[in-house]
Each structure stands twice: as C-alpha cells, then as structure tokens.
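Entry 12.
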Amino acid sequence: MHGAHGIGYEVYKRKHDVRMQVEQRREREYKESRRMVAAFDRKVHSNI
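Predicted 3D structure (tokens):
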C-alpha cells in the first residue's frame, strides 16, 4: 500500500477522504490501462 500509494494501510483504513482519493486514483489508472489495451488491440488486429 505504501509503495503504490504513498500511505500506510492504517491511514487508508481510518481516513475516509484518503481512502476516497486512493480509490479514485485506482479507478483513473484502471480506465487508462483499459484504453491503452484497447488501442493496442485495435492496432494489432487492424494489421492482419
């Protein structure tokens, strides 16, 4: 937790605002990774 988000699990567990920030960042990173995979997939399949 600390390495990926810069906070310890105890702080994450206790502070709602910190937890929400972490979860929002996770959501953004997840969506961005899905966009990258989709773009790569389109590139691969368009060259067949």
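Annotation: Helices lie at 2-5, 9-14, 16-46. DSSP finds three helices and no strands in the chain.
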